[in-house]
Amino acid sequence: MRENKLQKDYIIDLKNISKTFDDAEVLKDINMYIRRNEFLTLLGPSGCGKTTLLRIIGGFEEASNGQVFFEGKDIASLPPYKRKINTVFQKYALFPHMNVEENIAFGLQIKKLEKSLIKKKVKEMLELVNLKGFEKRSVDSLSGGQQQRIAIARALVNEPEVLLLDEPLGALDLKLRKGMQLELKRIQQKIGITFIYVTHDQEEALTMSDTIAVMNEGKVQQIGTPVDIYNEPKNAFIADFIGESNILPGTMIKDYLVCFHQTDFECVDAGFGENAPIDVVVRPEDIQIVDKEKGMLKGKVESVTFKGVHYEMLITTGEYTWTVHSTAMSQVGQVVGMVITPADIHIMKRR
Q1: What's the rounded Cα separation, in Å, for the pair 311 and 163?
Q2: DSSP for 165-201?
């Protein structure tokens, strides 16, 4: 799914991974690698297979077919506790009868490390997650965000090479979730290990990730940087799932010239052939509203909704209703012009 890299850059390599539950194939021949020290997010709607794939990497599920390589070695037969991988779930599963220090130290005590070393490591973890001084607090007295940090500290104190995170922010309110997105990225960059994160939240994925793997119906649809995924979606599902999009059928007349909405537009795309059927994606924020005489297209404003940082307008041009985001509001019923620059027209193969 991505360009070939030297094998030493990989920490996890998935080969032909499939998974079937009761004759339902939930993962379909997935091939992808994950680089060392990468923050990779598995993004997709509920039921797309992202959590199942995470559980296979962690050893909690066994693939029906395929292999999981960790640093070049097949780890399919290794149980979770023997893998250099730890997991943070949405339900933090902290021990209510233990205080914060005891929760974090639990895995180290199982390993029978010296008490002085355990105390030192717990202190380091509490400083890492910004909860210094919370050692003796009951976990039940902590907020949801604090409990989540303790769960992360408990996973990291065992020094895994990979941390799996299965929608760990899902139970938090919006403001706290946004703060924890930045906190998780800070932690990952500071300790320098691989994070594999599962979410259905597009903004979360775009905010934190080095790389995003978009999944749907058991398949990886596209892998790339957040900028690539947002600006150059490979198909209509990705364009529609990652943010809002105007998606129209069109014809690629020739390189750098496309026709849609019965109008020819210059674009920056090439290699689709001549007179080829394609789909066109235009993001709502990439449409400029101008006087109707100056527009490439002309339409009537049907509705205006205030979204806080911008206005969302539905503008009808006859055969299509456009979604437009702008910091300047046009009035309902007003006829306006719309301008789309070549760089803001994205071409996809029609499927």
Answers
A1: 39
A2: EESTTTTS-HHHHHHHHHHHHHHHHHHT-EEEEEES-
Residues 322 and 99: their CA atoms lie apart, in Å, by 55
pLDDT digits (tens, 9 = 90+) for 188-231: 999 999 999 999 999 999 999 999 999 999 999 999 999 999 98
Structural domains of the chain, ranges and CATH numbers in brackets: 7-236 (3.40.50.300), 244-349 (2.40.50.140)
Buried-state track 267-277, b at ≥16 Cβ within 10 A, e below 16: bebeebeeebe
pTM of the model: 0.86
Q: Could you give the CA distance from residue 31 to residue 65 in angstroms, rounded to a whole number?
A: 12
The confidence score (pLDDT) of residue 9 equals 83
Q: Which two tokens stand for residue 145?
A: 């965000």
Q: Write the DSSP assignment of 286-320 as a string of letters.
A: GPEEE-GGG-SEEEEEEEEEE-SSSEEEEEE-SS-
Residues in the chain: 351
